[in-house]
């Protein structure tokens, strides 16, 4: 049972392929089920203590995992009961059922327990749960002090995070073999609770991974302000937004930050002020240009955006600027580009999509030939080559004015410091979330920008 940070994320089809590859190499289905059930049993025993455990088993292999777990838990001493929605139907599940020597109660009439383990349906479900199963599951979870899901809470679509009915929220989900998109995408992620990985001995290769703490070493002994990264922030109509982004870049670790255009009173003395003209943007020492926070959407804003797009410097585009550009125009840029849209800005730039957030972000990244940071409670970071990073939910207190400006500044600092666009975006997202975690409740964006220093440390 290990944290999922930095691990691969597999779709249902990819997970099946990984298991089939292991089977072809000589690892039987029964062996995989024994490993999964043993891992579940060990995790439940650690989490449940001496409390009675009710294991809910379905007819497929997820239910088989539940039978194995129940048998192992019983052998280890805790009080265990099993309730089933139907008889097992797969050969491996039937064999696992034979390991459980106790009674199997009907799901509809079983009594609740302090600890409930959902092994009804796992990865690959594509239809809503039957009403009687959904009703029973909600009843068990509502009466439990600890609710644990095996692989995925029953009733969740694996690949897009959709809820297939009225589902309860679990405290812990034990991901078998690999994390799945539904563990990180909303609305399903909030129903999973804390997600922990149970390795089952299969190879899990993927171009999608879970966000993890980045490697952010201290500057080299011979570092100077320009080797640490120079960020140029273009000021638009709302000077405060650009200034907030600039301060975030400074606190995230950039060695030199300048704001192109007038500042407002109270700006740090370390923030360099320059006019926004072609000569300023042509400075070869600039590691990243940031445009968009508080830019406006008038002709003056369009002119500033034209200047930014004409540079050969890496570019971070946020806020208003996302309403003034097209994917086709971005696709031909010779320099690296990172876009940081929330849902409304994403729809304005790429049009509304009925696909899941991961698929939409990857398609948008390819279309614009840019790295996309599709913000929200389930932030998705996607590169044009198909790689992606999924971020676990961060603090809901980030829903405050200016937090997006802070994120854009942090990403610009990471990009200017020499990171690849995908790694820079991921590092910025991680720092942003960590700063929010450290602050606790009811902070403002100014606090968030300053807290990046502690997060970076």
Automatic annotation (TrEMBL):
Q: How is the cofactor bound?
A: Binds 1 potassium ion per subunit.
- Pfam families per the UniProt record, alphabetical: Carb_kinase, YjeF_N
Residues annotated to bind K(+): 62, 118, 154
Per UniProt, where does (6S)-NADPHX bind? 61-65, 122-128, 151, 241, 294, 342, 405
Catalytic activity from the UniProt record? (6S)-NADPHX + ADP = AMP + phosphate + NADPH + H(+); (6S)-NADHX + ADP = AMP + phosphate + NADH + H(+); (6R)-NADPHX = (6S)-NADPHX; (6R)-NADHX = (6S)-NADHX
Q: Which UniProt keywords apply?
A: ATP-binding, Isomerase, Kinase, Lyase, Metal-binding, Multifunctional enzyme, NAD, NADP, Nucleotide-binding, Potassium, Transferase
Q: Which domain of life is it from?
A: Bacteria
Biological process GO terms, please?
Answer: metabolite repair; nicotinamide nucleotide metabolic process
CDD domains of this UniProt entry?
YXKO-related (cd01171)
Supply the EC number(s). 4.2.1.136, 5.1.99.6
Annotated AMP binding lies at: 375-379, 404
Q: Give start and end of each YjeF N-terminal domain.
A: 15-208
Q: Name one GO molecular function term.
A: ATP binding
Looking at the record, the residues that make up the YjeF C-terminal domain are: 208-457
The cofactors it requires, by name, are: K(+); Mg(2+)
Name the protein family: In the N-terminal section; belongs to the NnrE/AIBP family. Belongs to the NnrD/CARKD family.
What the entry lists under PANTHER family is as follows:
ATP-DEPENDENT (S)-NAD(P)H-HYDRATE DEHYDRATASE, ATP-DEPENDENT (S)-NAD(P)H-HYDRATE DEHYDRATASE FAMILY MEMBER
**What is the purpose of this protein?**
Bifunctional enzyme that catalyzes the epimerization of the S- and R-forms of NAD(P)HX and the dehydration of the S-form of NAD(P)HX at the expense of ADP, which is converted to AMP. This allows the repair of both epimers of NAD(P)HX, a damaged form of NAD(P)H that is a result of enzymatic or heat-dependent hydration.
Subunit comment: Homotetramer.
Protein name as it appears in the record: Bifunctional NAD(P)H-hydrate repair enzyme
């Amino acid at each position: 049972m290990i944290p999922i940070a930095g691990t691969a994320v597999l779709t249902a089809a990819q997970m099946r392929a990984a298991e089939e590859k292991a089977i072809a190499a000589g690892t039987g289905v029964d062996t995989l089920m024994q490993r999964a059930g043993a891992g579940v049993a060990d995790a439940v025993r650690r989490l449940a203590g001496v409390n009675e455990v009710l294991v809910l088993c379905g007819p497929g292999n997820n239910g088989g995992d539940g039978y194995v777990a129940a048998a192992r838990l019983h052998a280890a001493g805790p009080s265990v009961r099993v309730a089933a929605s139907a008889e097992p139907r797969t050969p491996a599940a039937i064999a696992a059922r034979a390991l459980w020597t106790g009674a199997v109660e009907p799901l509809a009439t079983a009594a609740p327990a302090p600890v409930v383990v959902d092994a009804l349906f796992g990865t690959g479900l594509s239809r809503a749960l039957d009403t009687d199963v959904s009703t029973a599951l909600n009843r068990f979870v509502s009466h439990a002090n600890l609710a644990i899901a095996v692989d995925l809470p029953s009733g969740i679509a694996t690949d897009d995070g959709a809820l297939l009915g009225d589902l309860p929220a679990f405290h812990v989900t034990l991901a078998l073999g690999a994390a799945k998109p539904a563990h990180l995408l909303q609305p399903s992620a909030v129903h999973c609770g804390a997600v922990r990985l149970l390795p089952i001995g299969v190879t899990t290769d993927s171009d999608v991974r879970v966000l993890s703490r980045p490697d952010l070493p201290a500057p080299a002994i011979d570092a100077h302000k320009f080797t640490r990264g120079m960020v140029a922030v273009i000021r638009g109509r709302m000077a405060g937004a650009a200034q907030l982004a600039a301060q975030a870049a400074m606190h995230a670790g950039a060695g030199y930050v300048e704001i192109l255009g007038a500042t407002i009173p109270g700006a740090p003395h370390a923030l360099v002020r320059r006019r926004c003209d072609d000569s300023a943007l042509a400075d070869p020492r600039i590691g990243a240009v940031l445009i968009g926070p508080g830019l406006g959407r008038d002709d003056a804003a369009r002119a500033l955006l034209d200047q930014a797009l004409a540079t050969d410097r890496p570019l971070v585009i946020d806020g208003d600027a996302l309403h003034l550009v097209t994917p086709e125009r971005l696709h031909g840029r010779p320099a690296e580009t990172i876009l940081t849209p929330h849902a409304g800005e994403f729809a304005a730039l790429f049009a509304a999509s009925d696909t899941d957030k991961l698929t939409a972000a990857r398609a948008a990244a390819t279309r614009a030939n840019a790295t996309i940071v599709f913000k929200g409670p389930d932030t998705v970071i996607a590169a044009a080559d198909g790689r992606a990073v999924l971020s676990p939910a961060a603090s809901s207190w980030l829903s405050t004015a200016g937090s997006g400006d802070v994120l854009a500044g942090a990403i610009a600092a990471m990009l200017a410091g020499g990171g690849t666009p995908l790694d820079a975006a991921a590092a910025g997202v991680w720092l942003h979330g960590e700063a929010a975690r450290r602050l606790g409740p009811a902070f403002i964006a100014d606090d968030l920008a300053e807290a990046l220093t502690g997060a970076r440390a």
